[in-house]
TrEMBL record:
InterPro entries given in the database record: NAD(P)-bd_dom_sf (IPR036291), Sc_DH/Rdtase_CS (IPR020904), SDR_fam (IPR002347)
Family affiliation: Belongs to the short-chain dehydrogenases/reductases (SDR) family.
Pfam family, one: adh_short_C2
UniProt GO MF annotations: oxidoreductase activity, acting on CH-OH group of donors
Protein name according to UniProt: NAD(P)-binding protein
Keywords, ordered alphabetically: NADP, Oxidoreductase
Amino acid sequence: MSSTSLAGKTILITGASKGIGKATALEFASLGAKVVINYSSDAAPAEDLVKRIGADKAIAIKANVGDIGEIERLVDETVKWGQGKIDVVIANAAIAPNKSLSETTEQDFEAVMNLNVKGPYFLAQKASPHMPPGSTLILLSTSLTNHTPITPNYLLYVTSKGAVEQMTRVLAKDLGRSGINVNAIAPGPTATELFFKGKSEELVKTIAGFNPHNRLGKPEEIARAMAWMVGGGGDWVNGQVLRVNGGMTV
């Protein structure tokens, strides 16, 4: 765990009640930050996480971050709770359907693009005016965008994450002028509830075997990479995609 203190910092994490988002909320709270835990539908895990962290350091806010009006409300509530500023924004919320080209409907496409692409885009737009110099915006991609053995069922998901990586490059030029660093974290397969859903034990072992360590990543490992990026290690890192995957892609 990083020893860097984030006391006095306000962190907004979308999709923060489970998986990587939950691990990230716990990591940043352990470093002294105040954490906004965004969730879309299920309040119980978010409220449980607030209790675990402490109501003085965490708040749960329900919002659909694929909707611009909801994004605006989320940002406004965060700014109010964070005493006028947001120091770190982590656009973690996403969906990952298994859809090949022939299986994809227009509804599928719009749902993925709304949450995975439009969401981070307009979250950056609405949040950045409230982010002081030295702030950080972290977008979430995936190491599958750079994984040669990828299978056709990931087409729709990686299409959206490819857009996120391009967004990262250009936003770094834009928001960098205001002293805001913009980077993306691209995890490899990570042991979350979402990852295991619908996968056989044999398939999980096969996916783990793509890694030289022969295992899945842990949500806490992704969270620590983000803490490093925010806690001083990333001061001179801007516009980059950090692939946190144990060497699955090189």
